[in-house]
Amino acid sequence: MLKHLTIKHYAIIEELTIEFQSGLNIITGETGAGKSILIGALSLIFGERASTDVVRKGADKTVVEGIFGIAGNSKCAALLASNEIEASDELILRREISAKGQSRCFLNDSPVKLDVLKEAGDILVDVHGQHEHQSLLRTATHIELLDDFGGLKGLVDSFAESHRGLQDLIAEANSLRERERQLKERRDLYEFQIKDIDTVAPKSGEEDELEAELRILENAERLYEATSRLYGILYEGEHSVRDQLILARNDLEDLVEIDRSFEEARSECYSAEANVEELAKFIQHYNAQIEFNPARLEEIRDRLGELSLLKKKYGGSLDSVISFREKIGKEFSLAENFSTEIAKIEQQIELVRREASGRAERLSSKRREVAEKLAGSVVPVLAELGIPHGRFEVRIENRPAEVPGKDGSRNRPLVRLGKKFYETTPKGIDFVEFFLSTNLGEDVKPLSKIASGGEISRVMLALKSSLAKSDRLPMLVFDEIDTGVSGRIAHAVGLGLHTLSKFHQIIAITHLPQIAGFADAHFLVEKREDGRRTSAAVRPLDVDERVGEVARLLSGIEVTEASLKSARELIEEGKR
């Protein structure tokens, strides 16, 4: 429910705060005092579009903020969670419209897009009257109203589960068919590419090994000369390193005999001599292995050329070529298995389709029963609300479809009843729309085509009276629900609102005393002037003020004792 509403710098409203109550909140006031302006401001925080015209002259921006109690409202909790907004038992909706045309929206002080604010409004409220926020005019909501009335959520959820399963399987089958089609188109290309790569048969790391061998073969002469020279320097040449080390060792032997401190130096000399001998052996062995092999050199160059060409064609590196070969090899091998895999999935589709068809048929049958009950419960209420010849129908349409596989229907989760296939939504095979006739002798027409705001409001009141215990919208707003009614009918409308307010918080603008008398909380909109500017104010009325305001509605500007007496009687009746 809406607890607090704060409005700043909106049209003729300077600043006001209203604390609404549970039950029926009635708003009255002189014509032009700003009652509908109040509803317009309220609609801002429900995501309605706005222009800079709403910003009060001289102000930088309009600010409208509503604080709602949402304890136990799972839809609000899910909305906050999906937008990563911290949740509590209260939800704050705020909208700011700047004089420059910028709009900012907030949920619990977190900035959000206008669509998110509108989604919150759709969860929290229905506004009925002169504004666009009328769920009854959205045909898509009719099936939800019908299901709520019949308590069909379990059957709907059951079908939705089968519908999702059918969609997933159809998507999987279509994906395989698409891959099969693509593979057929690319089969010759893949076959050529596989043969092209397999002819060369590259191996991981092969390129590095070949390039290392190529460097050795290309530099064989240089390697031979260098190792021959090194061997001479170290071992065989005149004054070789080995010979010099032997002379040094002999001198160190003599020195050790004189001074034992040369023992370590002598040992290091022995080690150096041994190291030189090992190094010389290695160089001699390497020198002996050097090949002058022009044929092998050409072979390596040819092989590296082949590998380089593959890299240019298939990925820039040898590992990429090998990975590409594995990928297209798997794709190519799938060709033989596509038919089998698709056949398996189609068998699963038929099993799930049978399950979904059974659930859809049960749900549709139940909806038709509920539709008759809903129509039967709405018509008497319409009569009480001043539409004595009203006819209300709930029409349920099932839309036949082509056999799956024709006209693109393979991509849709159709169900089959008997020999016929039908279109579906996650809610079943039914497309629901409300029809109404308000005058004797007229045919029923789609409810969404009815132009009279007063009739729409009374139809909604009749529907809400029937749906009160099942509908989860916590708040309803009726703007001028009393249009075109008076007397006994006005009393019936007031009684209907009073009864409905036991299940929902209601805010209603009225000019009829028969409706105002049923208020749980009564607010008066007044226009004030300070000599310079006009502004609108709203204040709650106490018991005596309520009597006076209802009396004014009864008799006009001049309040008489008779009108005061009648007002007290109306208010007392409203308490019963």
Account of the 3D structure:
The chain is an alpha+beta fold. Among the domains are: 1-134 and 470-541, P-loop containing nucleotide triphosphate hydrolases (Rossmann fold), CATH 3.40.50; 206-332, no CATH class. Helix content is 53%, strand content 18%. It has 17 helices and 18 strands. The chain has helices spanning 35-44, 74-82, 114-124, 142-150, 153-200, 206-218, 220-236, 241-258, 263-289, 294-314, 318-334, 338-384, 453-467, 487-500, 513-516, 543-555, 561-575, and strands at 2-10, 13-19, 24-29, 61-69, 90-98, 103-107, 110-112, 125-128, 391-398, 400-401, 415-417, 420-422, 430-437, 445-446, 475-479, 505-509, 521-529, 534-540. The protein has a six-stranded antiparallel β-sheet with strand order 2-1-4-5-6-7, covered by helices on one side. 33% of the residues are buried. The model has no long low-confidence stretch (mean pLDDT 86).
